[in-house]
Design a protein that fits this description.
Number of strands: 12
CATH class: Mainly Beta
Strand content: 25-35%
CATH architecture: Ribbon
CATH superfamily: Umud Fragment, subunit A
Distance between the termini: 69 Å
Number of domains: 1
Order of helices and strands: HEEHEEEEEEEHEEE
Largest sheet: 8 strands, antiparallel
Shape: elongated
């Protein structure tokens, strides 16, 4: 009888530990950080299909949005789909794209991280050399592989409330593991 009680106590201790760890995992996953997998070529050369990243759900509770941040957000066309893009414009910013160059508030962005020059879509939201003002509570986002990215050039600015989080760490593949830093100078962010 003593052996059975010891076994039951041991099993209960294991179950308590499993439940505690599972609960902690769920809290972290739902409220603090979320793993994501990059799908598609819209963020080449920064991220590639199959890269695994961590998205912080709390970053923007402690600091403001910054131009150059990479974020995950809900697609404006289908909220069940998540996009990964870079913030280019903040509320009130004036975006102007002309001759494959991006200007924010009349300042030319030096974008060493993009894979190809910035093109425009014929039926898109942004027209060549026509200024676009980002509305309040919205941000303007673009992928780093401009010819292969469905972004604000096509569907206009996205709501700040659609942001899931800030991409802060890549954990796979092993040869590019590390913190994701904002490439824009502090004066432009």
């Amino acid at each position: 009888m003593k052996i059975v009680k010891s076994i039951v106590d041991f099993v209960m201790d294991i179950l308590e530990t499993v439940v505690f760890i599972g609960s902690m995992f769920i809290v972290v996953y739902l409220f603090i950080l979320t793993p994501n997998q990059v799908k598609g070529a819209s963020m080449d050369n920064t991220f590639h299909t199959g890269d695994y990243i961590l998205t912080s759900r709390v970053t923007y509770k402690f600091r403001r949005l910054e131009r150059g941040d990479v974020i995950v957000f809900k697609s404006p066309k289908n909220p069940d789909i998540e996009y990964i893009k870079r913030i280019i414009g903040l509320p009130g910013d004036v975006i102007n794209i002309s001759n494959e160059e991006v200007r924010v508030n009349n300042i030319l962005l030096k974008e060493d991280y993009i894979a190809a020059p910035t093109n425009l879509w014929d039926d898109g939201c942004i027209k060549d050399n026509v200024p676009y003002t980002v509305p309040p509570d919205y941000i303007f986002v673009m992928g780093d592989n401009r010819p292969r990215s469905s972004d604000s050039r096509e569907f206009c600015a996205v709501t700040i409330s659609s942001i899931i989080g800030d991409v802060f760490y890549r954990y796979f593949p092993a040869n590019v593991v590390g913190v994701i830093s904002n490439p824009l100078p502090k004066s432009i962010r």
